[in-house]
Design brief:
- This protein is mostly helical.
- It contains 17 helices and two strands.
- A hairpin with a 2-residue loop joins strand 1 and strand 2.
Amino acid sequence: MDRHTLWRAFTNLLPVWFIAMDATQLSWAASTPLGIDATTYVRGAAAYMAGGNPWLGGVTDNGTTYHFAGLPPTVIAFVPFTILPEAIATFLWVILSALAAVIIVRRLHLAWWYLLFPPVLVSVWAGNPQLPLIALILVGGASLAPLLKIYALVPLVGEGRWRAVALALALVAATMLVAPSLWATYLGEWSTLAARQVTEAHGGLSAWGLPLPFLGLTVAALGVVALLDPRAAGWLAVPILWPGSQLQYGTMALPVAGPLTLGLLAVQLPYLPALIAFGYAAHAIWRRRPNIQIQASKPPGNAHRLATSRRR
């Protein structure tokens, strides 16, 4: 059996792997309110509209309170949903997440069973803005995506979509003019909020929680990927490095990742995404290796042209 046959067999088993990993999330889903993340975002915006601190808004689940952790632009983006009853706003975001998942799979020409990718299902259940922001980047409105989550800027930079980046930054700057006190509160509490986010994520899954030498190596590996394949680095940077990352962050890899990477991101295991950085760096270098060998084998300058003319 050659390697191509083995690879096809692995790809064919991927939906079975997704289902197996989905099964590990059933107990979480059974004990977690539908749309928990959406409720958290809506409560943060509602607290702001009531004159309070949005970062005190949250949802208590199984004895733990999960607080809103977005930036001020996200607060403002969710303000329109505060006019709806909380239950309706929450359910609306669950529906939006489900529709975004379908749009992403169709836009990327993926098989339907990629909807079973555990980060996708977790995002839909939680009503997390994760999937809508990816859909915005893929089908239009990319400059609005960072208002949902600021790290949407990272894949836009990786793809070199500078007009969308500039417009997104202008929109973020506009929120500073519209809500300066909101920004002042956030900046004043930033270190506390960042630490709380990592704590409530139980350390997160990314390399952020690794000892500094290993974190540095992961950053260096991702840097290699950025040099050789900036688009891949842009989409993978969030699940690999973002502080307090959770399983749903793996959806960011869908536009660029292959079956092996997605198979790894289907597993909720701390620091596993860091391995992807090293794997992608090695793969990117290996892909460049034949070109390097060809260039090295050619005589330089006139010598190469002379050698070519003699062969004729």
